[in-house]
Amino acid sequence: MYSVVLTISAADDLEALQxxxxxxxxxxxxxxxxxxxxxxxxxLSGALAGKYRLRTGDYRLQFHVxxxxxxxxxxxxxxxxxxx
Length: 84
Fold this sequence. Notes:
- This protein has a 5-stranded mixed β-sheet.
- It is of the alpha+beta class.
- The protein is built from 2 helices and 5 strands; from the N terminus they run βααββββ.
- The protein has helices at about 10-15, 20-30, and strands at about 5, 40-45, 50-55, 60-65, 70-75.
- About 15% of the residues are buried.
C-alpha cells in the first residue's frame, strides 16, 4: 500500500468543499492508497507531465508519486482546475 499525503494547499482545498463533494473526494483519497491499481487515473501532459489527475463528477485531484507516497497537490472544480 502507498501512503497518501496532501500538500497544505490541497488540504485547504479539501476543507473548502461542500459536504457531498467532500465525502466523494475522501473516497478518492482512500482509493489512491492502492496505487497503481487505481482506475480512472490519467497522466497529464505538457507542463504537467509526470503528474496525474483523478476525477469525481466535476471535481479533480492532481497528484504525483514519489517512491511509495502519493502526493496530492491540488483539489478543485474542473472550471478553474488547470489554471495556475
